[in-house]
């Protein structure tokens, strides 16, 4: 066992000295998270640009545009009809609102005005949301006219001018918009919406699994070059060599995750001392399970390129099915497939500790699965481990 630990310590030392391995294992996950955080982390509201062609330029079209522009997250891009049609034809835009000429005059004369949405296909998700917002703004104007008409009808014969009626109705409508009778409050349930809590665990487990799966390439190369065979000419047994390689995989993954989580704690203050220790327990089980998978890949691969591609495919499948970047609907086909992804259980356990503030007891199911995978992976990889090409 002592000789196996020497192999482990030597490989961890080489890992820490290898700038390429450190860049892949530490800098890439940090860079990936920074890019995702910069792109999505600060956006808590819907943000989009509404493309509008105003062929009317009257008072009510300006009022409509002003109402749309007042919606949080929505900006206005005014353009002419030729430019809008060209961009629609080239798919540079998926939806444009056309306010036709005479829109304001029609409304002022009591007629029914019409807005025109031009779109490609269904207009896209963003376009549909914008269309709904624009219809809501148009409905506000419509309600204003209905209120004026109703007030004018009720006050007919009283001698009050239509201008005075319109002014009073406008004042009441303005007060209602500023202090609505029915307000809407947003309450987030189901854990913290914080971007770091939600996505950092998945990114960390993805790169750790990448590193441990691709370490199989190194073992295949050592076997092909006869390095493992030469080690067996010493007093080192096959069992000790295997345990040394397994522990080195676990140690490398553990050190990599430890550094990343320490950085996460320093930057985002994500842990308490107790939750950090709980995260380390999860890390140990995850790296043990991933280390076993890496050794299985090394045992079944005949060439370095085969080991590399198998590692990439396995990692990407487990990452996508593990709910790293998107939520998987319960009861769906993807949910069924996610049950064979190691990352699913690691991410659940991390998020129980980090996002929900839970304990290891609450995460016992994913912990048990990772423990079983680690034990089964260790047994299978030991049975098929080949230190010499073609050996049995």
Short recap of the structure:
This protein is mainly α. The chain is built from 15 helices and 4 strands.
Radius of gyration: 31 Å
Please provide the count of β strands.
4
Principal-axis shape equals elongated
Strand content: 5-15%
The SSE order reads HHEHEHEHEHHHHHHHHHH
Helical coverage, percent range: 55-70%
Distance between the termini: 23 Å
> Could you give the order of strands across the largest sheet?
2-1-3-4
Number of domains: 2
Question: Which class best fits the helix and strand makeup?
Answer: mainly alpha
Largest sheet descriptor: 4 strands, mixed
Tally of contiguous helical segments = 15
Summarize model confidence as the mean pLDDT: 80
Give the low-confidence spans.
Answer: 188-193
């Amino acid at each position: 066992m002592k000789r196996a630990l020497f192999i482990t310590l030597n490989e961890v030392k080489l890992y820490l000295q290898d700038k390429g391995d450190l860049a892949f294992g530490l800098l890439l996950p940090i860079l990936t998270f920074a890019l995702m955080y910069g792109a999505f982390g600060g956006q808590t509201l819907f943000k989009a640009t509404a493309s509008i062609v105003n062929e009317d330029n009257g008072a009510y079209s300006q009022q409509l545009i002003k109402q749309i522009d007042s919606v949080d997250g929505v900006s206005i891009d005014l353009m002419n009809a030729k430019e809008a049609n060209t961009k629609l034809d080239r798919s540079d835009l998926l939806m444009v609102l056309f306010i036709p000429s005479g829109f304001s005059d029609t409304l002022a004369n009591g007629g029914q005005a019409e807005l025109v949405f031009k779109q490609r296909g269904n207009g896209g998700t963003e376009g549909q949301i914008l269309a709904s917002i624009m219809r809501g703004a148009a409905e506000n104007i419509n309600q204003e006219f209905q209120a004026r008409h109703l007030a004018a009808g009720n006050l007919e014969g009283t001698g009050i001018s239509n201008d005075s009626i319109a002014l009073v109705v406008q004042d009441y409508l303005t007060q209602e918009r500023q202090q609505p009778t029915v307000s809407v409050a947003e309450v987030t349930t189901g854990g913290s919406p914080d971007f770091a809590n939600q996505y950092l665990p998945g990114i960390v487990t993805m790169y750790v699994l990448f590193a441990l799966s691709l370490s199989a390439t190194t073992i295949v190369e050592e076997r092909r070059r006869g390095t493992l065979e030469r080690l067996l000419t010493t007093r080192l047994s096959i069992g000790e060599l295997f345990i040394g390689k397994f522990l080195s995989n676990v140690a490398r993954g553990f050190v990599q995750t430890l550094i990343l989580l320490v950085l996460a704690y320093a930057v985002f203050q994500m842990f308490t001392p107790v939750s950090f220790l709980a995260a380390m327990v999860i890390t140990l089980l995850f790296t043990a399970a991933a280390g076993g998978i890496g050794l299985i890949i090394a045992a079944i691969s005949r060439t370095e390129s085969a080991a590399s591609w198998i590692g990439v495919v396995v990692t990407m499948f487990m990452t996508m099915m593990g709910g790293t970047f998107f939520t998987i609907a319960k009861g769906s086909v993807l949910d069924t497939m996610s049950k064979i992804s190691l990352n699913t259980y690691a991410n659940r356990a991390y998020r129980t500790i980090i996002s929900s503030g839970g304990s290891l007891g609450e995460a016992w199911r994913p912990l048990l699965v990772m423990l079983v995978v680690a034990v089964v992976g260790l047994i299978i990889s030991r049975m098929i481990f080949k230190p010499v090409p073609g050996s049995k």
